[in-house]
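Researcher: Here's a chain I'd like modeled. Treat it as a single chain, no partners, no ligands.
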Amino acid sequence: MTFLQPWMLVTLPLVALPLIIHLINQRRFQTVPWAAMQFLLAAKALARGYSRLRHWLIMLLRMLAVAAVILAVGRPLSRGWLALAGGGRPDSAIVVLDRSPSMQAGAAAAGGESKLDTGRRQLAESLATLRAGRVLVVGDAARGPEEVPAAEALAELPTCGPTAAAADVPGMLQAAYDFIRENAAGTTEVWICSDQRANDWRPDDGGWGGIRDAFAKLPQPVRFQLVSYAEPPRGNVAVRVGGVRLETLGRDRRLVVTISVSRQEDGQRLSLPLKVEIGGVTSTIDVELAGREAVLKNHVIPLTRSAQSKGFGRVSIPADANPADNEFYFVYDDPAARRALVVAEDPAATRVLELIAGIAPDKGAAGVDVIPPGGLASAPWDAAAALLWQAPLPEGRDAQLVQAFIDRGGQVVFFPPDRPTAAVFAGGSWGEWTVHAKAVAPETWRTDQDLLANTLSGGALPVGDLEIRRSCGLAGDIVPLASLPGGGPLMARSSRADSVTFCATTPAARDSSLAAEGVVLYAVVQRAIDRGLAVLAGARQVDAGPAAVALAAGAGWTRLAGSAAAASTEVGLHAGVFSVGERLLAVNRPAAEDTAAVVGDERIDGLFRGLGFARITGRAGDADSMVQEIWRAFLIAMLVALIGEGLLSLPRRLARERMARGFPPVEAAA
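Model: Modeled as a single isolated chain. Structure tokens:
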């Protein structure tokens, strides 16, 4: 139990004071045998058992009264639902605030108050009661902890409001640790307010072990309190625009869009009116949602001849449990030329990569430039969207050219050379080739993001059907996307650059069935080109978060659509449409926000294993405070104990008088 005045607990030994007084009184009398009184002792022997019990009860009630007074003066706290934690008032309280779109879900019975609003209000009340020496909040891992002038301000600060970006819980905890270590903070409580979504917590991230060990080694005590709002909203539907394409047919132009609506649980059939707004013109499309997802693919929206070739729009659905996923912004422009570079030393791999990159997924043309190793200086870097590389990793001047291509947003897919070297690029390096006596198939692969993600309709790529005959070792700072039996990576993304991907085999027939199967390799290459084209185009879709913040850094962003209440210091974290020079950017929530599962309590308990950790479960709209002073209950307990002690201490003469007046004796009543 937590006390605001824990020093009062040193007086708890005074509880034994009634017992000590009793023992002292026992020594005041000396037993002397006296024959004349023996008959009185014999007459009283029958009542001695009850009398002794009454005396013990009186002494116990006196001890309880003393204990209640001491505990009441100590000002005890109750943390909601009796989730009690030890310790006194902390020197510092750091709030790790999950401001992701899923935290904006609200309960209908709560009058629309979201999980985030409820958490901010309850945390403000609780920290005001705890009276921590300093209150800091971490709402963004990149900014780190920011001191709050008063705990009550948590509920009002703009930088504590909702965003469209996913929360980086491991990153925010790392920022909290850095603050505690650098500032030599004393006793610290870290309050985490979150709905436990997997994309925010990333429980499989290898950094969790280091964070846990770092906190455990701190000299000062650190306690963690998770305020969990894990209950998913009921009946929530999300809308998303998966693709936007501007087509010109003669003098007419039209917009081709793919719109999907989804929910996380099966439910009854819904008829949803999709509202599409472009250039001040609104149209409505009815979509039937029978299962978990419905996709309106390649829906055509005619544009007026007077409309500009570059523009933006918004798709929205009626309000439901979570307003954060009820709208989606998009931008469009004349498409950039689809062009890729191929650098390969193996003629077989060159032919396959050139063919795959040259087949556009739509009716547009696609260009491919085959560059011999050593001829990068003359390559058309500014016009290319992706680089397919099957040769030793670049070094020297070549590495500088490739790095410059990556820095401006180009995508690179590396395939292993025939003779791997010790070169390292983007944190990755090739090892030795392994020949598999019997072709193996990928054992695991990621379907939620990156180049092997499921399709818009939810279908998985046939990665498990591939046959790998030779694979090259891959090591370094990488994030595996697909693994072979035994754990070796088949495909991985550089942890230093999201636009760099390594594939541990080649499309040559002697190495794999990538070319024969075709679908997986085609999807990987075309998705890489699509990502690179997004940078070249005059209109681009980006996820809210670090990528959008990086684009906003040093650039003059002008908001064209979106919430005007968003803080100007958090450009890139809120949904909307922005103009940057001659380009348009649509910023929206990440796709994982619509599908991420809730991380189980046991899994989160394991992340904090060995640390002081407690959980408080809440719901959107809860009115109760998480931390309450309960000293009044102890004062009431003291009064009850004193009243009971007084009744038991009534003399027997008074009991006889009560019987003479027709009242039952006190002892009988007891």
